[in-house]
Automatic annotation (TrEMBL):
Upper classification of the organism: Bacteria, Bacillati, Actinomycetota, Actinomycetes, Streptosporangiales
Gene Ontology terms, MF aspect: hydrolase activity
Pfam families per record: Hydrolase
Keyword terms: Hydrolase
Stored InterPro entries: HAD-like_sf (IPR036412), HAD-SF_hydro_IA (IPR006439), HAD_sf (IPR023214), PGP-like_dom2 (IPR023198), S-2-haloacid_dehalogenase (IPR051540)
Gene3D superfamilies named in the record: HAD superfamily/HAD-like, Putative phosphatase, domain 2
Protein name as annotated: Haloacid dehalogenase
SUPFAM superfamilies: HAD-like
Length: 242
């Protein structure tokens, strides 16, 4: 576990956990790809494609190049983006039934082995605990309930519309408002460097678990706390003073 020496972040009053690939690994979806006849190597491309399109939607929906000043709302759901990415990486050759199987398989993901311990540690320390995702609350709620973790979180926060998806500041600020804490007293726990970058820009305390990426992306400012897994990351956040 390590802490960023500069900045002196305060001990958070609440934590929000990212869901996909943080609490719930996506890797088990590989067999769904194989069953659909999609090479397993394309799963990483699908994930990257999904993120790319999510970020583009969040950015593109905030302004009007024609000069009228009216926003251009982009009403897309996370599932829309996930399905679109599947079609793109397969050259639009994926059968509807195979597409459904991959998307529906996301609801059957299992949590990381230390996920419960991390959530329990935060709750036991008296912190508010929630999840924060770029989709409606149905999928994360289903995952948490199936894993027996739903009772360990106070809220399942969903970022809508697309123009406020993470990593835009509005996503993190809305989470802080929902939990009744100022941004600088809310911590994000995530396995994604881009999520750390967004939360840090929104003045949140940041905790990064290295279980997914291994090394933190050097293009971003480092997290306030990092750990080898979720439990170690939460322990580091709880050890902050203030």
């Amino acid at each position: 576990m390590s802490q960023r020496p500069a900045g002196r972040p305060l001990r958070p009053a609440a934590l929000v956990f990212d869901v996909l690939d943080t609490l719930f690994p996506l890797a088990p979806l590989e067999w769904r790809f194989r069953e659909a006849g999609i090479p397993r190597v394309l799963m990483a491309r699908w994930s990257a494609h999904l993120l790319r399109d999510s970020f583009a939607l969040a950015l593109a929906s905030g302004g009007d190049p024609g000069g009228s000043g009216a926003p251009r709302p982009v009403d897309r759901s996370f599932e829309d983006v996930a399905r679109g990415a599947l079609r793109d990486i397969t050259g639009h050759q994926i059968a509807p039934s195979a597409e459904d199987a991959v998307i529906e398989g996301m609801a059957g993901l299992d949590p990381r082995p230390e996920a419960a311990a991390a959530l329990l540690a935060a709750r036991g320390a008296g912190l508010g605990v929630a999840t924060l995702s770029n989709h409606d609350d149905a999928l994360p709620r289903t995952l948490l309930e199936r894993a027996g973790l739903l009772e360990l979180v106070e809220d399942v926060l969903a970022v809508r519309p697309a123009r406020e998806w993470k990593p835009t500041p509005g996503a993190y600020h809305a989470a802080a408002r929902s939990l009744g804490v100022p941004p600088e007293r809310l911590a994000l726990v995530t396995a994604h460097g881009w999520d750390v970058a967004g939360a840090g820009a929104a003045r949140l305390v940041t905790g990064w678990s290295s279980h997914l990426e291994g090394r933190f992306p050097p293009v971003f400012a480092p997290p306030d706390v990092s750990g080898r897994d979720l439990a170690e990351t939460v322990d580091g956040l709880l050890a902050l003073s203030g």
